[in-house]
Design a protein that fits this description.
Length: about 300
């Protein structure tokens, strides 16, 4: 249901983290957020790749801008009553750009964002050919981000892509440097084994975020294992998107080949089911309570 974003979303997410690991499905627009929430998600993750792929139809190579990320995040925060964190790429520039990114993203109702230490323009974290900026440069960005947030509970999560470039030890050193600069949590991207996730947990003192994406450098590790390892946040950024895209491809292909949707009606959400996801009856009731006609 359309409503103002929840109050103190950062505090709400931190409360969940204090109780144990939090599973965050990746979403990219309002309907995907509603779907995840109806399935039982208590927190959500706005995937930068998902927003870029879905809204622009282009790869995740820094072609979407801060405004487009903020618009997508705002739409999501207005329809789900759970805390949401979002990808913010490299902060869309240097320290003042990072500061403005934090201001704009916090204004949408998010619980937090993550910023990465890649050279701009960034690349997908599970592809080769990436570069990382110097540690001190990223620390400056983290300090600017922390200073720019209005609500102290808003999470600034520093992501490092250094594992595939400089090695695991350097990535851990970077993580601790970013924590020293004020990062509330660390996101280690592109780890290749459970042992590497365990090393981060053993050697980094702030909360940790794990990326459990598919078809990348990280093997499939169940959420229960991340719970055992002590990771506070576990994102599944493109899981729903990939399932959706395969279904979309198959449906359009069959429609074009046969000229009818009759053969795959059983693979569709019905009108009634769609309206249930969208809380259509609640909109009708609310409209009537305002004295207006039924929607």
């Amino acid at each position: 249901m359309l409503r103002p974003p929840i109050l103190s979303p950062g505090a709400a997410l931190r409360a969940q983290m204090a109780q144990g690991s939090v599973l965050l499905p990746g979403v990219f627009n309002g309907i995907s957020a509603l779907s995840a929430h109806r399935a039982g998600a208590t927190a959500l993750y706005v995937s930068g790749a998902g927003v870029t792929n879905a809204s622009l139809g282009v790869p995740d190579i820094a072609l979407a801008n801060a405004t487009e990320f903020a618009v997508a995040s705002a739409a999501i925060c207005q329809v789900v009553p759970v805390p949401v964190i979002a990808d913010a790429d490299t902060g869309f520039g240097e320290v003042w750009n990072v500061a403005r990114t934090v201001i704009e993203m916090e204004r949408t109702g998010l619980a937090g964002i993550h910023l990465e230490d890649q050279v701009s323009p960034k690349r997908c974290g599970h592809l080769d050919g990436k570069g990382v900026i110097e540690v001190g440069h990223m620390a400056q960005k983290v300090r600017a981000a922390v200073e720019a947030k209005r609500d102290p509970s808003f999470l600034i999560i520093a992501r490092t892509d250094a594992r595939g470039i400089e090695g695991i030890d350097a990535a851990i050193d970077r993580a601790n440097a970013y924590a020293d600069a004020g990062a509330d949590a660390i996101f280690a991207e592109g780890l290749t084994s459970e042992d590497e996730f365990a090393q981060f947990r053993d050697r980094v003192r702030v909360p940790l975020l794990a990326n459990m994406t598919e078809f990348g450098k990280t093997p499939l590790i169940p959420f229960s294992r991340f719970q055992e390892l002590g990771y506070e946040l576990v994102i599944f950024p493109m899981t729903g998107f990939r399932v959706m895209l395969k279904a979309l491809d198959e449906a359009f292909s069959e429609l074009i080949q046969t000229g009818t949707q009759a053969g795959f009606l059983d693979r569709m959400r019905t009108r009634t089911e769609l309206y249930a996801t969208l809380n259509y009856d609640e909109y009708q009731a609310r409209d009537a309570s305002y004295g207006g006609a039924k929607v």
